[in-house]
Amino acid sequence: MFTPLRTDDVILLLLLSKVSHHPPAAAHHVMSQRGWTLWQEITIDSKFRGKYISVMPLGCIHLQFHSSGNHYVWGKVTSTVHNIIVGKLWIDQSGDIEIVNHRTKDTCHLKFVPYSYFSRDLPRKVTGVVADSEGTAHHILSGTWDEKMESAKIVESSRGCGGSEGKQKTVYQTLQPKLLWKKYPLPENAENMHFFSSLALTLNEPEEGVAPTDSRLRPDQRLMEAGLWDEANAHKQRLEERQRLERRKREAQATQALEGGEEECERTR
């Protein structure tokens, strides 16, 4: 669990807790002084296919802006890790996301195009359409999920040919696109730091005045940050074994209480 994340211009109160280990499930809540709140509950399903593993996140993400009341809800796409056994690991994102504004009923449909060796499409391509509550398209989105996304306002639409399954394809004429998002450049030596961003590299830094449940206070976490991998792993194993013993103790007490209650019921009949 993390508590306040401070930067020069914003303070976030971020709470993150792993609800379940098997199956993995987490709850996440963020409040910003900039006037927005984000929360989500995520668990996953996975499929192992020998050469790759696909991870399908289950659950919804909510983002609400306090001043306007706009409340957006969406899910996540499938992440696939290739070359699990042999070769260089690489990740692809694929699937569709439907973002809904619950106040206005506007929608944004995003399509993450899966990589194909035989496709001429740009790798990691993302396309999308923003529509109002009546289904009329107003903006086109395009870009990649790892570099940048752009938006172009639709000025005219018409029915063309070449759609799949005999359906007509809608052709849009747009204004010049505007940049919506662009990836920050990675810090120096990123290849030696798991390609983490500058923000990710600072998330485990200690901070005064945090909650006692903050994960940054875990002794094994501090040992790992100091580069003492063997000591950190040994401490983590001791901690997990204590947790297992405590869990078995609680389960035994619960079983004993249940059996005692059943015996008491039998005597009072």
TrEMBL record:
Highest taxon listed in the record's lineage: Eukaryota
UniProt xrefs under InterPro entries: OSBP_sf, Oxysterol-bd
Subcellular localization(s) per the UniProt record: Membrane
Entry keyword Transmembrane helix: no
Chief localisation class: membrane
Cleaved signal peptide residues: 1-27
GO CC, one annotated term: cytosol
Pfam families cross-referenced by the UniProt entry: Oxysterol_BP
Protein name listed in UniProt: Oxysterol-binding protein
